[in-house]
Write a structure and sequence with these properties.
The chain is mainly alpha-helical. 70% of the residues lie in helices and 0% in strands.
Length: 206
């Protein structure tokens, strides 16, 4: 596999490297393994010391989902059942989680994944183009899901009902978010394999 920055023109003269521009290029140029590791530590710390304790404020006994955002596919009846099993204070905690804490969490993991993809695919940047920005798609749909769930919860507290169309929006956003998550995870795995293969080939060269 040939590094794009070391590619040569047909006459044997090294070709000028083509630098990517825009947000994708920014992350390819600025990302490093150290930054990726630091962001992973921030992600883990936020999950352990913020997200998990915060979710305890609206956790209800039983086998049902502790957050609708972790479910794959739900409708208005599922939302009603989820909210009806919780007190007003717990629902308020759920609203705060969706509006604040989960919003920050999505931004943290989004940037972390972007940096990891940028590090892994930096030698292949000209081939994979904007692949490193794929995690931001997951972030956008996570935010859309959070907005819809917070709105549904506020509507329930005010009127005791929930909008079926808003519930569908939340469900669709959650499903698309998980699809993005799967694609990002697969991309990271492919990036690791590609870098290992590239390292082995480089070691075999005289």
């Amino acid at each position: 596999m040939v590094d794009a920055n070391k590619a040569t023109a047909g006459n044997g003269v090294p070709a000028k490297p083509v630098k990517r521009v825009g947000l994708s290029g920014f992350f390819y140029q600025r990302s490093s393994l150290l930054l990726a590791v630091l962001l992973t530590a921030v992600f883990g710390g936020y999950l352990l010391f913020v997200s998990i304790p915060q979710s305890a404020s609206f956790a209800a006994p039983g086998s049902g989902p502790q957050s609708l955002g972790t479910s794959i596919g739900f409708d208005s009846s599922d939302v009603l059942a989820f909210l009806a099993s919780r007190t007003e204070d717990m629902i308020l905690g759920y609203i705060a989680s969706n509006q604040i804490w989960d919003t920050l969490f999505a931004l943290i993991y989004g940037v972390m994944y972007v940096v990891w993809l940028s590090v892994l695919f930096k030698p292949f940047a000209q081939r994979v183009a904007w692949l490193n920005l794929l995690p931001f798609g997951q972030v956008v749909f996570d935010w859309l899901e959070n907005f819809a769930l917070a709105s549904l919860s506020s509507q329930y507290l005010a009127d005791g009902v929930v909008s079926s169309s808003l519930a569908q929006l939340a469900s669709a956003s959650a499903m698309i978010k998980w699809i993005f998550s799967g694609v990002v995870t697969l991309s990271i795995a492919v990036g690791i394999v590609a870098r290992v293969i590239r390292a082995i080939k480089n070691r075999k060269r005289p």
